[in-house]
Amino acid sequence: MERSYIVAVTSVLAALGAILPIAAAFYLSWSVATSREEARLTGLAEYAIKRADAAFGEATTALKTADGFAFAPCSQEHISAMRTLVVTTRSIEDIGYFENDQLKCTSWGKPETTIARQQVDFTTASGIGVAARVHPTISNGQTMLGFRYRSYSVLTDPARLVDVLISPDTRLAIANEAGILVSGLNNPDPALIKRLIAHPQTGADADGDDLFAKSNSSNWIAIATSSRASLLNDLGRERLLLLPLGAIVAALMVGLVFWLSRRRLSPLGELSIAVQRREFIVHYQPLIEMKTGICVGAEALVRWRRPDGSLVRPDTFIPLAEESGLIQAITDQVIDGVIRDLGPVLLADRSLHIAINLSAEDIKSGRVLPVIQDALASSGVLTEQIWLEATERGFMDVKSARATIEEARRLGHSVAIDDFGTGYSSLQYLQDLPLDALKIDKSFIDTVGLVSATSAVTPHIIDIAKSLNLYIVAEGIERQEQADYLLERGVHYGQGWLYSKALPAQEFIAFYNESKRVHGAGPAVIRRDFSMAPPAVGGD
């Protein structure tokens, strides 16, 4: 009896010793996960409200600028001014002038039919009328967002108000205080959004199964929501690991699993681990001399290859890498990858060059130049065979950028400005910095051969590059008519799917060898002599 009693008491104490810590861990993990999820949703909502305010601010500025026009209504000067306003304002797709609530003209010209002005759903505190659901002819049935001020209305893609990267199980909405849904991401429930507007800033929906967070501005309310059920599913695996363990082991495992999962499941944590494991590889986008078809080089494009073989899109992890400072370690891995992948090919053909993209911090600090020199030292690859590319954001600190570029060119690198025309003060950078090449962004190449508000920009960019004796590279060429157009206007080099997609190293080497067999190799490493203009092409 005593033995049985001791066994029973021991069993009960053992069960309590296992159950109580695990129960406490269950409650703690749920509370922490909920708080973390609410913090994440709060961050999303706050960021979304900034994006919405920025887009609305640009649209408001455009409306008030148009309202101040002194041109005769719908004259050629008036239409041209509206078109220029659309081209230079990122957040609007079109602008129209109305008289007596009838559309008289837009940035496209005068309408062929009578079009009545749509009534607004509400008016913001700043006096701008908002029509949440507009179906203009030019959008091919896509719902647009309309902003109205006096005689003018602008159309905006609702997606610009929620231009935020989120997971599929998270929903984001931009609404007003009355509950009118203006824009959304991942199909938010309008009824839920209207109900949550009256709730506190963060918490759980009492009538449903959602966690939510809100952020307010003078005009909008941003609401981010996610399902509590998905949160439970995420916790299930960790909880199962804790079940068979004893009291002390259970308590230790709660802390360990929570710490590891917190690091492993966050985007920054995953990226940090990927850098440590050197999970980044390089694909190569061939660069073609448009006059001859010769493959003269390639742009090195980083890819994140997970252990399961899947690839993560660069636009998903590059912004986080730049924000966290991990981009420098990733750039170093790209440099190593280029030398490892293509060192023998670059040694065999000195006319071949590879372009490496640099971050804004690398341009500012110049720390990447010694890294490249160290990588090249034992490879035999010439400095002249490595181009450096940076977007306009990397040149915002002009003084530091100039010092880095001058040192890079002294060492033998050529330097190109990438995605030209998508940033700010582009002409200033071209005039103030000793650049070698200008790369026209794909968004401008896409408009070649199309009737578009931005189609007239491409020839202007080409003319600017010619006036400064820069090599011209066109990105994203996909159609032969684009290539013909660019060649005729003197563009030197092109890249895009018309020639090839970005290729793994061995596939690029095969592509290059075939191009060399058909067209031959380039005559020399492409390098700009500041005393001479780049070679004329096509119509030049």
From TrEMBL:
EC number: 3.1.4.52
Key words, A-Z: c-di-GMP, Cell membrane, Hydrolase, Membrane, Transmembrane, Transmembrane helix
Membrane-spanning residues: 6-30, 240-260
Membrane topology summary: Multi-pass membrane protein
CDD domains associated with the record: EAL
Database matches in Pfam families: CSS-motif, EAL
Gene Ontology CC annotations of this record: plasma membrane
Gene3D superfamilies: EAL domain
Domain of life: Bacteria
GO molecular function terms noted in the UniProt entry: cyclic-guanylate-specific phosphodiesterase activity
Location in the cell: Cell membrane
Catalytic class of the enzyme: hydrolase
Domain EAL: 264-516
Catalytic activity as recorded in UniProt: 3',3'-c-di-GMP + H2O = 5'-phosphoguanylyl(3'->5')guanosine + H(+)
Principal cellular location given in the protein's record: membrane
Protein name in UniProt: cyclic-guanylate-specific phosphodiesterase
Natural source organism: Ensifer oleiphilus
